[in-house]
Amino acid sequence: MKVEKIDLTGFRGLRGESFTLDDLTVFEGEMGTGKTSKLLSILFCLTGSSPHGLNLDELINSNTDSMRVSALITLNGAIYSLERKKRRRVPVSFSIKPEDVRLPPLDIGIFIEGRQIADLFMGGPTERALKLDTLLGISEYDQRVSQLTPAAAERRISELEKQRERVDGTRQSIERLKEVDDRLIVLQKRSEEVKLALSSMETEYLHAKALLADDEDSMKKDAMLLGKKQMLQDALRKSDNIPKFPSKLAQELKEHEAKWNALQTRKTFLEAATETLNIEGKQVNQLKLCPLCGAFITDNALAKFEHYDRDYKDVTREIMEFKEAVEAKRNQFGKAQIDKERADLLSSQIDTIRAEIRSLEADINVTGNLDSARKTSQRYRELMKQVEEIDSTSRNLEDQKRTLESIRADLIDSGYADLEGKISRLRRLASDIRSVKLVMIDALNEIRKERITKLRDSFKETFKKIYPYERFTDVDFETSFSRGRESLLVRGKLGESWILASQMSTGENVAMSFALLFAINNMEKAPIILLDEPEEGLDDNGIRGLADTLNGLSEITQVVVATRSHLLASFLGHINS
Amino acid sequence: MGEFEDRLKKDLSEERLELALEILNLPVSKIRDLIERKVLEVFDSES
Question: What are residue A467's DSSP bridge partners?
């Protein structure tokens, strides 16, 4: 097939244009001269499409509401007329005359931009690696495979497993709930005991507290007590030094006094008797009267009264003798009496001191319980602390209990079996995803392998067709996987050895690139290719090589080039501006 | 891509093939959403 002529109206910046095409046609001109529009008009007419997803309405000249492109083509010796029209917001219309013709497959791939060629190669000229999957047309599947990951399922499985672990923990927690309950009961009992102890200690504690507050006064009482004890010791010592009242002295004095009185009485009686006997100076014997009653008595009877005088003398003597004894006894008694009074006085003082000591000791006993008070106070505080600790622990345990009860309720609600079921189903889903991914990867690898084989064959064949020199006896490429992607390195056989594209001239690189591009796009079957500024990025040598390549290409397919490079245009020699 | 699907049919069970075809018929950007949705269907399911 060959496109002979194009007529267009209202296409982009071209109001109306008509141009003819050869096997190799070059549109040379500066920017904005309509070179690319001519290429795009051919593309639109043949395929009804625009590059880069450009809206077809955008191709319509801004001053008109429609565009039309018609082509005159020759195919198998016959001439056909194609026409494609487009109004804004109206579908494209297409007609071909005569109608009984089947055109070769034409698609967007026939339009190639220079930068597109440059984009195919990664890195510098020394290592022109291509994105293999993109070139092979399987990148989309590759992307799908890369999106296919069980991570989401695994993440959820992990969550559920953690939940299950918590549930497992919960089961243990429920067992712990009983322990907590038991501990709470023990604590409650202990709390009651301690509170009871506190209650019973309260009075003692308040007293102790008061005592501790009155500590200074207590010290004074201590000093007083010490003084009183000293006084008591002195008094006791004095008391011990006072002789004890002889126990028989009173009786002895009484006996002495009785005897003394009896002697005095007898003496009195005898004095009276003797006075009587000496009444009026006469002796009784002279009167012969009874000395007792005055009656006349006989001499014999009177003789019996003669002992009175003797007795009187005896009594008087005895009185004289006994007087010392009774006075001594009386003195002894008087002294003893004084000692007794002193002893009684001291005893009274001792009793008083003792009473004071007892009183002080009573106080001091209390005061002396300062240590005890401190201990009481400390004990009380300890018990208070215990109560607080018990209460705090109890509160914690109550919290734990509530949490555990809540967990138990959750466990009942969550349904352990359901959790297992979800994990199982998610594992199955993750497994499905992994399996699908693996099978897709295998399928892609197979397809990639097959396409690489086809690409290699096509590349070799195309290169031979478009490379006009005999420097390389063969070309090939190798694929490698690096930096996470497949890449492709082109090489050429020079004599017996292979060299990489980096060791080739620019022109040879261009030929390699085009051969590869054609091989990849299966361009050898395309009846026409439209190249927009293919010289982009090339130096003069490269442009020369490109020109050689395009000349070679034009032998196998119709080539239309739009370029700003006069050099390229002059090398190609077929200028249709 | 018929050849790709043909290869999947050979190696995948019916259930997994269904998942694979579902993935192949979605835009690439929607695949993760599909997986997430399937995961959530299980994860959020009621007992």
Answer: none
Q: Are A208 and A373 in contact (CB under 8 A)?
A: yes
Q: Do B19 and A436 touch (CB under 8 A)?
A: yes
**Phi and psi (nearest 5°) for A80?**
-125, 150
Contacts of A415 in chain B (CB under 8 A): 47
Which phi and psi angles does A15 have, rounded to 5°? Answer: -75, -45
Asked if the model's pLDDT at residue A284 lies above 70, the reply is no
What's the Rg (C-alpha) of chain A?
75
Q: Which of residues 160-189 of A touch B (CB under 8 A)?
A: 160
Rounded Cα gap, residues A577 and A266, in angstroms: 201
A405 — alpha (psi -120 to 50), left (phi > 0) or beta?
Answer: alpha
Measured in angstroms, the CA of B39 and the nearest CA of chain A are apart by 6
**Cβ neighbours for A260, distance < 8 A, ≥ 6 positions apart:** A319, A322, A323, A326
Helix/strand/coil for B9 = helix
The answer to whether A329 touches A252, Cβ cutoff 8 Å, is yes
Confidence of residue A88 (pLDDT cuts 50, 70, 90): very high
Name A2's Cβ contacts closer than 8 Å, sequence gap at least 6: A21, A23, A73, A74, A75, A527, A528, A558
Is the pTM here over 0.95, yes or no? Answer: no
Residue A418, number of CB atoms within 10 A of its CB: 13
- Distance of alpha carbon A179 from alpha carbon A185, whole angstroms: 10
pLDDT of residue A405: 80
Q: What is the predicted ipTM?
A: 0.96
CA distance B1 to chain A (A): 9
Share of chain A above pLDDT 90, in %: 20
The CA distance from A129 to A9, in Å, is 42
Pairwise CB contact (< 8 Å): B12 & A439 = yes
Which ranges of A4-34 does DSSP label H, i.e. alpha helix?
Answer: none
Nearest-10 Cα torsion for A501, A506, A507, A508: -10
Cα-Cα-Cα-Cα torsion A8, A13, A19, A24, nearest 10 degrees, comes to: -120
